[in-house]
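Suppose you are handed a protein chain with no further information: no name, no annotation, nothing but its sequence. What can you learn? This example shows the usual starting point.
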Amino acid sequence: MSASVPSKKPRVNPLSRIPRKQRLVMAVRGGAGVGKSFFARSMSDAGLGRLCIFDAERKSRLLKGVGVSFDALEIEQPDELPEFIEWALHGEGQAQNYGCYALDSWAAYFGAKHSETIQAVRRRTGDSLAQPSAEDLAADQMILQGVLRKLCMESGKSVVIIDQIAARGKETKEDNEIGRVLPMTASGLEYFVDVMIEVSLQEREGEIERVFQVVKSNSPAFEIGFELTGDVTFADFLTRLQAAPESELPTVQPAADVSPVLEDPEPEASIEPTMTAQELLNRAESFGFQQKDVVMAAKLYHNQPNIFKLSELQMEDLIERMRARVEKAKAEKANAPLTRIRRAPAATAKAH
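A reasonable first move is to predict its three-dimensional structure. Written in structure tokens, the prediction is:
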């Protein structure tokens, strides 16, 4: 069985990486029951295309329109999440033409994987109360953040990452613990998103309102402390982004695109000679020359004693020379002076 020849890797066109479409990558954090999942579901109404939610909490069944206006993929095992994301971004899921993505939630995925790390440490040490070291946590976090990197960066789409705050004040306490990678689920998340929103239920003028407040931002369209209240949707944030003077890129249809790969120049087609050495000899014979004459001419005019290595141009040159020589011989023969044949005078008769 012959080994397959590896295909040549296409060259990336650097100019294709110039941003041509605006997108919004958000992290939405808050306690249980504040409406984070409903906010993620609102992406399906933002005009970005079909939404795909990676449901690590398996609560998408409670959202209106699941399986109809958007897709939600339940993650039963933590290790399925990277596989599902790969399927949607680069596998058969590309046929679904997803226009935006959401992960619900980062805390659920991170917590499940972190629990596996704790169990592995306790099995290794034999201590039922052992905790991962700072080095263990750092290594764990670098691996798990690959999920965020793939979803937020490789997708090239608008993304919402849902994260859960277990208890107010817990993060501050953890921040003060020496050697801790903190906050556990949020650490590093802010590096992959444009804006981090904290959602809470607050009493405003005697009414309980849902408050969306910007707590971290890499976008000039969303200053820290900016708030939206009420039934806030993803489209509300997208509208603010579009209205910002710094935003010049379209959010739906991308600007004029260029080819993502560089085309290799077409190799020049090799021109097969239309004349062979045998045909050269045949032409020479028609002019009245022999093979030895052709060999001598090739060596004299082209320094090539082997007529089978002559190029087509060299063969044509020899034929022209032979033709010229034949025509010259004909012309010389035609212009040669006629030789008169004189008759000898008749013998005089003998005198009788």
